[in-house]
Amino acid sequence: MFCHNPDEIINDAEINLVVELINEPEEAYEIVRAALKAGKNVVSGNKKMLATHMEELIGLQEESGKALLYDASACGSIPIIRNLEEYYDTDLLLSITGILNGSSNYILSQAFHNGTSYRDALARAQELGFAESDPDLDVEGFDATYKLSILALHGFGLIVKPGDIFRFGISNLDKADIRFARERGFRIKPVAQAVKFGGDRLALFVMPKMAGPEEHIYNVENEYNGVVIEGAFYDKQFMFGKGAGGYPTGSSVLSDIMARSHQYRYEYKKRRYFKAPRPDNDARLEVYFRYRDPKQFNRLRFEDISETYITRDYSYVVGVISLKSLLKEQDKLASSKSFLAFMKVL
């Protein structure tokens, strides 16, 4: 059977599970919402829809007694959501750090190792089916931001709107940035991070990272994803796998379908049994900031600068800045020709 009207599926009493895998997030939301209200279980992979409407969708599951599963929404074939729910379900989690977007990682790998231009690497990622239909979702960090919002819920019990998370993409990458990374022994990686600080506060951000060889994500290349989970007593756990492409995503969807056939559901344990940390942008980062117009530098409020480099063509600084200061200038940073990457959280 084949149809174009989702109501035919939702109103069919013989159908007990709906799999939603369409592109448009608001249409996906209407389908998922209607399916849950109709008493059907749902499997989805639409990270923007989930991140935007998560609180309501949790409520609908409670009201209907049905389940919504969405492991395919984050990290493709890596079962990160289910692991956070089942194996890291205590209050000991300190941070989640990950390469959550395979398309951006593929582009950076091609540029760094093969000298491929940003534009050519993006075109190749689209040909291989790694990139979204709208590439800005990948390269400007939107995709990773939606995923980080979902992981923050399952890792820390916190619902954070994607618009409240600092985001900076890779589209302004320049040869000068790659040169800086190589000279210092770094590789540039597209990283999303949620990190606890000050005991009960949580900082969330998405931006490129100057990763050193001692870090787990240093060797994660091309369309692969890598997620590091750090706990107070179990130290760092690393999960690695393909995060982009139809087959890895499809395998995750199938896993959710089979899990639901055995009555599996998310319990949202961190939200139910623990006090969630509060989101806070006072965290301080050491960053690399490359710019051409001095006005771009002057807008940022660096607390300390350890290195300055100025030439006729471009300049950069390495210094300490708060996440709050970066968030305040997010829109202007995104529209400039500058490039930003963090080194570490202080």
Helices and strands, with pairings:
Blueprint: H1 6-10, E1 17-20, H2 25-37, E2 41-44, H3 47-64, E3 68-69, H4 80-86, E4 93-99, H5 102-114, H6 118-127, H7 136-139, H8 142-156, E5 166-167, H9 175-184, E6 187-197, E7 201-211, E8 224-231, E9 235-242, H10 246-261, H11 269-273, E10 278-279, E11 284-291, H12 294-299, E12 304-310, E13 315-322, H13 323-328, H14 330-335, E14 339-345
Parallel strand pairs: 1-2, 2-3, 5-7, 7-10
Antiparallel strand pairs: 4-6, 4-8, 6-7, 8-9, 11-13, 11-14, 12-13
Class per helix and strand makeup: alpha/beta
The CATH topology assignment of the largest domain is Dihydrodipicolinate Reductase, domain 2
CATH class of the largest domain: Alpha Beta
Low-confidence stretches: none
**What is the CATH superfamily classification of the largest domain?**
Dihydrodipicolinate Reductase, domain 2
Q: Determine the fraction of residues in helical runs and give it as a percent range.
A: 25-40%
Structural shape: globular
- CA gyration radius, whole angstroms: 20 Å
Rounded mean pLDDT score: 93
Written account of the structure:
- This protein is α/β, with parallel strands linked by helices and 346 residues long.
- The chain has two domains: 6-78 and 248-273, 3-Layer(aba) Sandwich (Rossmann fold); 80-247 and 277-345, 2-Layer Sandwich (Dihydrodipicolinate Reductase, domain 2), CATH 3.30.360.10.
- It contains 14 helices and 14 strands.
- It has helices at residues 6-10, 25-37, 47-64, 80-86, 102-114, 118-127, 136-139, 142-156, 175-184, 246-261, 269-273, 294-299, 323-328, 330-335; strands at residues 17-20, 41-44, 68-69, 93-99, 166-167, 187-197, 201-211, 224-231, 235-242, 278-279, 284-291, 304-310, 315-322, 339-345.
- The strands form three sheets. Strands 4, 5, 6, 7, 8, 9 and 10 form a seven-stranded mixed sheet that branches. A four-stranded antiparallel sheet has the order 12-13-11-14. A three-stranded parallel sheet has the order 1-2-3, sandwiched between helices.
- The longest helix has 18 residues, at 47-64.
- The protein is globular.
- The mean pLDDT is 93.
